[in-house]
Amino acid sequence: MIIEATTFSRHIREQDAGYETFTNPNSLRRLRYFIEHSDWDEVILAQEEWIDNLCIGVIIVASLYFILPVLVMLFLR
């Protein structure tokens, strides 16, 4: 796989655009191999209960963050 990119000059008014071709970096190949040949999806499904509890906790904290100032202002009146 070849990644193609067009690069532009840092100066806005210059019309200096270049065209470069980059080979696929080794890290992308390793990531692709990991996704294709590991059981990462099964690991996530095994941790589903913990992830659900974490999401509920984040929702509760966010709700308190937005509701608490309103409640404080109501009680101070």
Describe this structure in words.
By secondary structure, the protein is of the alpha+beta class. The protein has one domain (2-76). 62% of the residues lie in helices and 18% in strands. The protein has a two-stranded antiparallel ribbon with strand order 1-2. The model has no long low-confidence stretch (mean pLDDT 79).
Layout of secondary structure:
Elements: E1 2-8, E2 17-23, H1 26-37, H2 40-46, H3 48-76
Antiparallel strand pairs: 1-2
- Widest beta sheet: strand line-up: 1-2
Element pattern in H and E: EEHHH
Structural class: alpha+beta
Note the main sheet: 2 strands, antiparallel
Oligomeric category? single chain
Please give the domain count.
1
Radius of gyration: 25 Å
Distance between the termini: 65 Å
Quick tags:
single chain; 77 residues; alpha+beta; two-stranded antiparallel ribbon; 3 helices; 2 strands; 62% helix; elongated
Précis, in short:
This protein has one domain (2-76).
